[in-house]
Structure formats: C-alpha cells, structure tokens
C-alpha cells in the first residue's frame, strides 16, 4: 500500500533553496519540530504563518523566529485543530489575505493522551491529528507505518482501544488521506507526501519509565526530526523526481 522513501542522505538545512516569495503555513509551529521547521523556512526568506491554538505561545514563537532569522514576514495564525469551527475561521482569515499558498505542513498533533472528545464530539487523537496554489506542496506529518486498521464505528468508544491504538488509527488516517488527496490532485502541480519525523511529543506523566528512558536515549533530536519534512517541503528533488503520494522515513 505504501511507497516508503528516505530523504536524500546528502540533504541538510544548508540545501534548502531560497524561498523568497513562497507562502507557508506550518501547524503546531510554536514548539518542537514544527517550530524548527517554521524557523528554517523563514531563514530561507519564506513568508511563514505559525498556526497554533495558544496565542501567547504562538506570538512568542513568531517573535523568536523573527529574532533568529531576521525575517519579519512571520505571522501568528490562530488555529485550534480540536475545533472545526476554529479550522474554518483560520481558513477564512488566511483567504482574506488574498495570498497564494505554496507549502502547507500539517505538523500539529497529540500522542498518548487520555480519552477525551473534541468540541465536535470526535475522539481527540483522531480529531486533532487527522481531521493550494500550484506548484505547491502538502506535507502531512504522521508516524511509522501504522500496523492497525481503522474501525470508524468505534472511534468514539472510550473502552475500545488504549491510547496508543487510538494514536495509531489517527496516524493511519493521515497516510490514507495523503494517498487519496494525491489521487485527487494527480493532474495538478500539487505534491502531497507523508512524513515520519522520528520524534515523540505529548507523552503524558502516565507514560511508563522505560518508554521515557528509551525516548531520551534513542529518539532523534528535534532539529534532526524536522529534516525529513523540510526535505519534502523544499527539496527540488520532489519536483524533479515527481515524488508524490509517498511515505518518507528519516535516514538511519
């Protein structure tokens, strides 16, 4: 089902081309790999929208990115993915700017949370983790190819799955969505790909000691975790090799 690719072993931050004139939205860009991704795109002169739900943290991230990169074209875009109303509002705010959109990086997500529902009544990990102008790119941040299925009838059943099974289903939905979106845009200059960033976030206090220890010892540093999404978002190879509808894993 999945065409698994690895980013070029030679691709580094220094290989990101000049992005002058490119408009980018990065969700969940106030922290972690989303922040690093937004920062490096801004460093290469992109016009970056930092899309996240917490205004204070979002504006702080914007200020820091501007300070580090010297690029003033960085803005906060309010977006709460647990609310479809907020998603619609963010869309309207962006469309009102009359700007093209060249790169969309769907980075925001949660993992290992206790069972809760979003305000729209959808199990939180599925609702938040799952629920453009050509030539453009859409990069969906997912996880290792999930070894699970999706039981849509039981998504909102708090007793049906443990928290990581729910996470697995949400990440599989990301990949399936990317594949279908790629099919629908097959005749467009829009390149849709999925990325496993090899980094864990949102591990709650209830997470076992061994998981936390293994995460600390073996998970890729946040700066490296952003490299595969930056590759898919900026590398000329994506256009040159017509890489679309693919699933990218980091190079070991």
From TrEMBL:
Keywords of the record: Oxidoreductase
One Gene Ontology molecular-function label: oxidoreductase activity
Gene3D superfamilies assigned to the protein according to its UniProt record, in alphabetical order: NAD(P)-binding Rossmann-like Domain
Domain of life: Eukaryota
Name of this chain's protein: 9417_t:CDS:1
Lineage of source species: Eukaryota, Fungi, Fungi incertae sedis, Mucoromycota, Glomeromycotina
């Amino acid at each position: 089902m999945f065409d698994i690719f690895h980013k070029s072993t030679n691709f580094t931050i220094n290989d990101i081309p000049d992005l002058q004139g490119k408009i980018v939205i990065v969700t969940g860009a106030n922290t972690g790999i989303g922040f690093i991704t937004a920062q490096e795109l801004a460093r290469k002169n992109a016009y970056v929208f930092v899309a996240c739900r917490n205004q204070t943290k979002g504006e702080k991230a914007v200020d820091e990115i501007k300070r580090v990169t010297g690029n003033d074209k960085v803005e906060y875009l309010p977006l709460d993915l647990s609310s479809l109303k907020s998603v619609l509002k963010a869309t309207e705010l962006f469309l009102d700017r009359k700007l093209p959109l060249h790169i969309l990086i769907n980075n925001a997500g949660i993992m290992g949370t206790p069972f809760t529902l979003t305000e729209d009544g959808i199990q939180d990990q599925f609702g938040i983790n799952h629920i453009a102008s050509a030539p453009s790119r859409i990069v969906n941040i997912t996880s290792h190819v999930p070894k699970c299925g999706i039981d849509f009838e039981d998504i909102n059943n708090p007793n049906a799955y443990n928290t990581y099974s729910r996470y697995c289903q949400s990440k599989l939905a990301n990949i399936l969505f990317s594949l279908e979106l790629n099919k629908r845009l097959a005749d467009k200059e829009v390149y849709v790909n999925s990325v496993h960033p090899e980094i864990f976030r949102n591990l709650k206090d209830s997470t076992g000691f061994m998981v936390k220890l293994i995460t600390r010892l073996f998970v890729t540093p946040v700066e490296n975790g952003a490299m595969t999404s930056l590759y898919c978002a900026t590398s000329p190879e994506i256009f040159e090799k017509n890489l679309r509808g693919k699933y990218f894993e980091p190079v070991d």
